[in-house]
Automatic annotation (TrEMBL):
This is Taf9 RNA polymerase ii tata box-binding protein (Tbp)-associated factor. GO terms for cellular component: SAGA complex; transcription factor TFIID complex. Belongs to the TAF9 family. Transmembrane segments: none annotated. GO terms for molecular function: protein heterodimerization activity; RNA polymerase II general transcription initiation factor activity; transcription coactivator activity. Keywords: Nucleus, Transcription, Transcription regulation. The keyword Methyltransferase does not apply. One of its GO terms (biological process) is RNA polymerase II preinitiation complex assembly. The lineage of its organism: Eukaryota, Metamonada, Anaeramoebidae, Anaeramoeba. It is found in: Nucleus. The keyword Transcription applies.
Length: 128
C-alpha cells in the first residue's frame, strides 16, 4: 500500500512489529482517528495549563501533566487480581439452587422459557 499517508504507514509498521500481519482495513483509519483525537486533547489541555501559568509557550511539564490527566480521565485500569479473587471467592461461596428430581427434560419456568409467547394481542383485534 504505497498510497498510504505517512502516519498510516507508521501505524502499519507498529502493527507488523507486534506480529500483527492480518487486520481489517478499517483498523488503520480508526487508529489514526484515535491518535489524532488523543493528541489534540492532550495538547489543548497542555495549552490551558501553560496559559494558567501565564506562559505563551507550552513546556514539557504542561504536556506531562496533560497526559497524566488524560490517562486518569480516559482509561480505566483493570481491577487487581486480589480484588477479582475476593469477588470470585464470595460468589463461589453461594451454592447453586437444588435441582428438583423429576423425569424428562428440565425446562426453565415459563417466564424464562423461549417457547413462551412473546407477544400480546390487543382485545379489540381478537375474534369474538
Amino acid at each position: 500500500m504505497d498510497n498510504l499517508p505517512q502516519d498510516a504507514r507508521v501505524i502499519e509498521q507498529i502493527l507488523h512489529s507486534m506480529g500483527i500481519e492480518e487486520y481489517d482495513p478499517q483498523v488503520l483509519p480508526q487508529l489514526l482517528e484515535f491518535i489524532q483525537k488523543y493528541t489534540s486533547e492532550v495538547l489543548e489541555k497542555a495549552q490551558k495549563y501553560a496559559q494558567h501559568a501565564k506562559r505563551n509557550q507550552i513546556e514539557e511539564s504542561d504536556v506531562t501533566l496533560a497526559i497524566t490527566n488524560q490517562v486518569a480521565y480516559s482509561f480505566q485500569k483493570p481491577p487487581s487480581r486480589k480484588l477479582l479473587a475476593d469477588f470470585a471467592k464470595a460468589r463461589n461461596a453461594v451454592p447453586f439452587p437444588q435441582i428438583r428430581f423429576k423425569y424428562g427434560v428440565h425446562l426453565p419456568t415459563e417466564e424464562y422459557s423461549l417457547t413462551n409467547a412473546n407477544y400480546q394481542i390487543d382485545e379489540k383485534y381478537q375474534e369474538k
